[in-house]
Design brief:
mainly alpha, 7 helices, 3 strands
């Protein structure tokens, strides 16, 4: 087993344990141990997927921190988009101009494409309709919303995580 494989397995187990601790309703030693055991078993059963570098990022400390940073930034973007959509919908003269925009994406990993597509969909006012290879089809509440996803700073952060893979 190579060092990259070991880091990936350990990183995924660590993420699952952290997730388990975050959703744990009541802290008890037996519950923590069950979470650790389940995390290890899940990673062992899913290792073919987890270890496929073409499908995911390398799980090292830098990428784990980047994932948390990405999630926090996405939450901020979702809140901002919610406010913007509420302003449009609640305005006496709704400025809704639905648009379907197609464009070529910058990210190359399948995981990055899925994360970006889901991030766009999670942001109110936009919906990822299709991802075909590098091409995205985005529906927006307004043309402006649908046209900007590739200028989104979150795309650059996904590219940084992909570049980290190439360094490893």
């Amino acid at each position: 087993m190579s060092k990259v494989v070991d880091n990936s397995i350990i990183g995924m187990i660590f993420l699952l344990i952290v997730f388990w601790l975050l959703i744990l309703e009541e802290f008890a030693l037996w519950k923590v141990l069950i979470g650790i055991a389940c995390s290890v078993l899940i990673v062992l059963f899913m290792k073919d997927f987890v270890l496929n570098r073409n499908l995911r990022f390398v799980l090292n400390i830098k990428n784990i921190i980047s994932v948390f940073r990405y999630i926090l930034a996405l939450i901020k973007e979702i809140v901002i988009a919610n406010i913007q959509v509420a302003q449009i919908v609640l305005a006496p003269k709704m400025k809704i101009e639905p648009a379907l925009v197609k464009f070529k994406g910058k990210v190359s990993k399948e995981t990055s494409k899925a994360v970006l597509g889901n991030s766009i969909t999670l942001t109110p006012g936009t919906l990822t309709v299709d991802i075909d290879g590098d091409n995205y089809a985005i529906h927006g509440l307004t043309r402006e919303y649908a046209e900007n996803p590739m200028d989104w700073y979150l795309v650059d952060w996904l590219l940084e995580m992909e570049e980290e893979d190439e360094v490893e």
